[in-house]
Predict the structure of Bidirectional sugar transporter SWEET.
Amino acid sequence: MAIFDLHHPWLFVFGALGNIISIFVFLAPVPTFRRIYKEKSTMGFQSVPYVVALFSSMLWMYYAFIKKNAILLISINSFGCIVETIYISIFLLYASKEARRQTVKLLVSLIGGLYTLIFLVTLFPLNGALRVQVVGWICVAVAVAVFAAPLSIVFQVVRTKSVEFLPFTLSFFLTLSAIMWFGYGLLQKDLCIALPNVLGFFLGMIQMLLYGLYRKVKPAAELEKKVPEHIVNIVVVGNSEQIHPVKSEKNEDMIKKLDEEENRESSVISPPVPALLPVANDHENEERAGGELAQVNLQPQQQFETPVLVVCAAA
């Protein structure tokens, strides 16, 4: 094939390196799916990135087949289709009923609906260079949407000043992949391959820059673990409005002292109360209840962040 022609050595180099680096990008979610397999639960993760990545890889494969002489583009997106299919299968296996239903719905609409429509509309009415051009620009639109998806993570990092959900390794390989495929598209004089990777390069650089700025900021979950549980003990005396915060280890002694003082005051000042009066008994019970210890637990509430995955299909 022309791709292995000695007159195009750099084309082969960029394509081969693009394949190798994109493999790392596709394999980035493996630790997540190991957790899903171990926990037997999807743990709140979404299937959208994997379905979109599968859709994108299938489109690029179709484009490479009709374009011809793009064996390296076919190889990496074939790998992407296999990997994303495995991810989606594992997700469906351990997802809840509602998550499984939404994933199937998304698969039917994107793969069974939109991809089939694109395939039929471009395969029969169009032919030759026009078909390649139309499919190529459709791939550009999808690739731009896939590359733009991690922008939500960028905004979250800026807002929280934390890189908890921004893995540096993925951003690094994403940037390298964009460089390799941009060079491949440029040498082939194919804007449909080169153009989306310009956006991918700048997005990867922004992510790495943000990681460098906020990498020392500790995640919210870790900060919550370090905040000790703070308990304030409050003693309410009688029906008065006086509130006495005390230390927890002295609670019992303080209660005894307060009860003794209250009993002495009542024996000196208060007249004797007949034992058969229910009203007095009720009042006395209220006073005793008023001397009990009230504890207010001021423990910080735990915040659960929705796990976010960034998966980008190779161009």
